[in-house]
Amino acid sequence: MNWDDSTPDLADDAPVPTDGRLVGASADGEDQAVEAALRPKSLDEFVGQERVREQLDLVLKAALARGATADHVLLSGAPGLGKTTLSMIIASEMKAPIRITSGPAIQHAGDLAAILSSLHEGEVLFLDEIHRMSRPAEEMLYMAMEDFRVDVIVGKGPGATAIPLELPPFTLVGATTRAGLLPPPLRDRFGFTGHMEFYAPIELERVLHRSARLLDVEIDAEGAAEIAGRSRGTPRIANRLLRRVRDYAQVKADGVINVEIAAAALKVYEVDHRGLDRLDRAVLQALLKLFGGGPVGLSTLAVAVGEERETVEEVAEPFLVREGLLARTPRGRIATPAAWSHLGLTPPQHSPGASGQPGLFGA
Fold first, then answer.
1. Is 83 in the active site?
2. Which residue among the candidates 21, 53, 236, 331 is catalytic per the annotation?
3. Which residue in 21, 53, 83, 246 is the catalytic one?
4. Active-site residue (options: 21, 53, 69, 84)
5. Which end of the chain is more exposed for a tag (fewer CB within 10 A), N or C?
6. pLDDT digits (tens, 9 = 90+) for 290-313
7. Is 101 a catalytic residue?
8. Measured distance between the N- and C-terminal CA atoms of the chain, rounded to whole angstroms
9. Would the pTM of this model clear 0.85, i.e. be above it?
């Protein structure tokens, strides 16, 4: 690592881009501020993830009893399940400050060295999307996590000298949506690994009732159940839908959210009873109506819906596959019988994948 490397201003991390969807994975502006206000402040307030909460509670209480910093923590799972919230709770439970950055912001080893060298003893460093960190920074992190030390390279070429820099004990909390991309040496250095599961509807109802109280919104049990059933098992999406339904209830009704108001509001925002939005249905409709259910290549499907290949693959497909509406095969994407049923269409005799014939539509 060389101190000549450019280092980012840690106070001005670039905002995460959004995809503009009501059920998108990221929030911006006012939405981020509201989501921050809705975050639980302790493990007792945190809803769901019972196993991870119980295990994490033991890790933190044991560290406090020893008077030591907590082991490094790795949290994996889909966006919106509470990884950032848990990192803040870890800092709160340990009564320590937290520093927040992300893997894409660390492009050089010098970026990471600047962060690590400014940490105080016991501080929590939250590294979001840790799998997207550069390889040189990743290799520096190995020594920092294990020995609380980094080697600073001064000079260049044959005259370069490595100067060891001691670091105060700290807790690294890494979050990733793709744990499989983390190299084993990095995974092995985390003392605790927690995988965040999707939420059951009844858990999302608890999340919604808590958020409604904080937002001073009146919602009944049926209204909460209606929103929870369309939230893709994700608290972040549930809270976002709640805010949009609240807007509808304030403008079109008396401000109280019941099942009729929730259903009417989500119809306006194009979120159907299974949680599919405009993009999800566009992908299914193209696959069924234009390509007879497939198989069809991803690029062809993306052109058909007017979106980038990455948008279809990373934003729409994971949920459609999880819902059993779409399948990825070596020959391309195919619709399942459930997809035909969901859109109220009758599959042709040569239903996708049933004949075993090669696909007609290229990748």
1. yes
2. 236
3. 83
4. 84
5. C
6. 998 889 999 999 999 999 998 998
7. no
8. 41
9. no
